[in-house]
Design brief:
Blueprint: H1 3-12, H2 14-20, E1 24-29, H3 37-52, E2 56-61, H4 64-73, E3 80-81, E4 84-85, H5 89-113, E5 118-121, E6 127-131, E7 148-153, H6 156-163, E8 167-170, E9 173-176, E10 182-184, H7 187-198, E11 202-207, E12 225-226, H8 228-236, H9 244-256, E13 261-266, H10 272-278, E14 285-287
Parallel strand pairs: 1-2, 1-11, 2-8, 5-8, 6-9, 11-13, 12-14
Antiparallel strand pairs: 3-4, 6-7, 9-10, 13-14
This protein binds adenosine-5'-diphosphate and N-acetyl-L-glutamyl 5-phosphate.
Adenosine-5'-diphosphate binds at residues 30-33, 62, 64, 188, 207-209, 212-213, 216, 239-244.
Length: 289
Amino acid sequence: MNPAEKANALIEALPYLQAFRSKTILIKMGGSAMEDPELVANVMRDIVFLEVAGINPIVVHGGGKAISAAMEKAGLEANFIGGFRVTTDAAIDIVSRVLSSEINPGLVRMIRDFGGKATGIPGTDVFLGEKLKNFDSEGNPVDLGRVGEVVGCQLSNMDTAHKAGIVPVISPLASELGTGRPLNINADLAAAALAKELRVSKLVYLSDVPGLLADPKDPSSLIKSINRAKADELIADGTISGGMIPKVRSAVDALNAGVRKVHFVDGRLPHALLLEIFTDGGIGTEVIR
Ligand SMILES: Nc1ncnc2c1ncn2[C@@H]1O[C@H](COP(=O)(O)OP(=O)(O)O)[C@@H](O)[C@H]1O
Ligand SMILES: CC(=O)N[C@@H](CCC(=O)OP(=O)(O)O)C(=O)O
């Protein structure tokens, strides 16, 4: 690219930089897109770019794959029901350790290494939770152990970071109402709960697929946009399964609660985040109401 082309690329981004200046964009960094540290570093550099450009990024991260690996190492089996990890008392200790001592500080370090400002905030300082009420297809209760849903958010730590232009990096744990004990929150739900609370301009889920796929085995079968009715249909017929279920459901909830735009984007694709924000068509799947 010659210097004039470089300048043109910057100028093309101008309307988007203007539109999103001082706006908040919540980025959910999925554990599935965190297997390769180099790819994660690329995303963190894009986040530093947003921060420097005067856009306020917030990161809520997952870490499902790393948690499963740590559980296996400890001789525990990883079981999921409807995209939620069955979390025994032994498992919650591993979940907390992997999220709080490994993944969260790792992301903060990467942002700082690129000259950005970031602070790690434990989800237990942000999210208030209750045990998730979960039912099987016949309506019978299914106990998932220490799995929670978010029933409230405490924003003081976030606000302090925000006002100082620091990117908050938040783990998907909640403090249980009444007991203060940690609850394991699916990171998609945690991200959507915070996005709703803050009414963010954009919620972007970064994962390891190009977006929502009509055939999960065929990466070229991208569904460009999806609404709740269609999502329910695809969950019922099994096209949407596993970790994609909480993603789609929480995305629609966030839209209904006033979040302006929600996208599923491939976190492994170089600059996926910037392409999503700074180009017209966007990439991946847009969730609509
Ligand atoms: N229809 C679908 N389209 C795309 N991915 C799907 C679909 N149904 C199930 N999936 C699965 O959902 C996974 C993403 O969810 P998950 O593993 O929880 O990711 P993350 O860690 O990013 O939250 C994909 O890797 C894919 O295996
Ligand atoms: C209850 C529940 O399922 N919690 C998740 C929290 C991490 C997460 O959601 O990570 P991803 O975004 O990488 O899937 C778990 O234990 O795996």
